[in-house]
Amino acid sequence: MNTSINTMKNPATLDGIVEAVKKIEEKKVMKLVNYAIREGASQAQIIEAIQLGLDQIGYLFEEGEYGVTDLMMAGIIFEEVLKLPSLKLINNGAEETIGTILLCTIERDLHDIGKSIFKSAALMSGFRVEDMGINITAQEIVSETIRLKPDIIAISSILAEGVKYIKGVNDDLVIAGLRDQVKIIVGGLSTHRQAIEYTGVDAYAHDVYEGVKQCKSWLNKGGESN
Question: What pTM was computed for the model?
């Protein structure tokens, strides 16, 4: 586990969160999260522990051990955790949005959990989010970019082949003369620094917390700069 988790008084609690999320035990997750907060765990540590559990669920889904219902339940658990006052990523009371995010899961990829969780976190952080859904092509993204003029395009990709389709999005935006008008962030099990360098996008995020922080940083709305 990441060394940042081990800075807490009782890192076993965060390990327990990972395991409880993996087993989709909602009551246990909430109990452990509240305990971790009382023990002094940071927002980032708790989000990281949950993300590690979600990653394991993703792998189990790929192996056929979990089904779509399990993915949906895991997403619900994450959203419940984000509702806890000490874990809200931002000010819910903002009357105006801080920017627009065009969100989707890339072509050939039918996974929805990561995208849905990011959407919830981004909305809670004051963004307007336009969710295009799953299995979205590069041309569809370009068309919506022309129509909506978003500040950021956020793409989820779980499958390994998603990298080539993400590159297609970047290339098509360049051809359309739009690439310098929008930032692109990607997330999911198929993304890593080398893949991002290949695709030409601006950033990738290991987890939802990091992704929202990066988006806020681009718009100078309280995020931490890279």
Answer: 0.70
